[in-house]
Structure formats: C-alpha cells, structure tokens
Design goal:
The protein is mainly alpha-helical. The chain is 49% helix and 0% strand. It is globular and about 45 Å long. The termini are far apart.
Length: 162
C-alpha cells in the first residue's frame, strides 16, 4: 500500500483508494509514521467458527473496530441466509467502538440497530452464537452508554459471543 502525505489519496496494489494511515486500537487514524495497531486484513473468507473465534479474541482485547472487520468479511462472503446476522454483529461491534471512543449517541444507536438485526434471526445461529444473550447485551449496553458521561472500556464490556 502506498502512503500519501502530499494530498494524494492512498492506494492499494489494485489502485483502489485505501487509507494507509496507522490506526489505534479503536480504529482511529494516527499520524503517518506513528506506530499503530496492525489492521485486520480485508476480504478474508473464514468459516463461521473461525469468524466467531477471531472476533471474540479481538473483542476481549478491546479491539471492537477490528472485530467489526471480521464480521464484515463474514457478512460479505458468508451464505446469503446468514448475511443479515453477520451485518447486525458488525453493527454491534461498531456501536461498541463508538461507545469506547466517547460517542454515546452513535454508539447507542448502532448497538440498538445491531440488536434488532440479531433479534430478527430465525433458527439455529452459526458457530454457537448466543443470539438471545447478544441482543440483551447490546440493548443493556446502549442504555448504559446513554447514561454515562465518559467512554466505556471496550474490553471490560465486551460480549460473550457463544
């Protein structure tokens, strides 16, 4: 990936615009030349179990932005019938990201949107996902985020996915 500091857009090897700035653990861009947190590779095809395990590890380490990228890969590459569930999981991870960054309004909104998407899931969830517990977690955290005056600690409030 090429980096840009002169006003030109960063581009990946295929020429697509892609921001190459380093990121912190919550996905916020850092100045060029700063040591950041390694980004999740994009477009990785994983099994449902691999997606859940990798996302759980990232959530437990306080990196919900990176977990959202794993869920996004599953949403885009998974079976058509599961895509809404994976998208909803990605929304909850982004909601947690915003809550950890101190954006209570955006965090609560995305947590609730994700909870509704998870609640809409019918049938047995892939990879042992505990959809009922995830819906409760997202709704409860949305309520808490709206009551707080400071950011949440992403690792300490991370959900158990299974």
């Amino acid at each position: 990936m090429s980096t840009s500091r002169s006003g030109e857009r960063d581009r990946d090897q295929e020429g697509r615009a892609r921001n190459a700035r380093p990121r912190d653990g919550l996905g916020r861009p850092l100045p060029y030349g700063t040591a950041g947190v390694e980004r999740q590779p994009e477009g990785v095809v994983r099994t449902a179990a691999q997606s859940v395990a990798e996302a759980q590890t990232l959530l437990d380490s306080g990196r919900p932005f990176h977990a959202h990228e794993v869920f996004e890969d599953a949403w885009k590459s998974g079976p058509e019938g599961e895509r809404g569930l994976w998208r909803a999981l990605a929304q909850t991870a982004v909601g947690l990201t915003h809550a950890a960054r101190g954006n209570a309004t955006g965090g609560a909104r995305l947590l609730r949107r994700g909870a509704e998407g998870i609640a809409a899931w019918q049938g047995v969830a892939p990879a042992g996902l505990d959809t009922a517990a995830l819906v409760r977690w997202a709704r409860d955290l949305a309520d808490e985020v709206e009551r707080r005056s400071e950011p949440v600690d992403a690792a300490s409030v991370a959900p158990r996915l299974t």
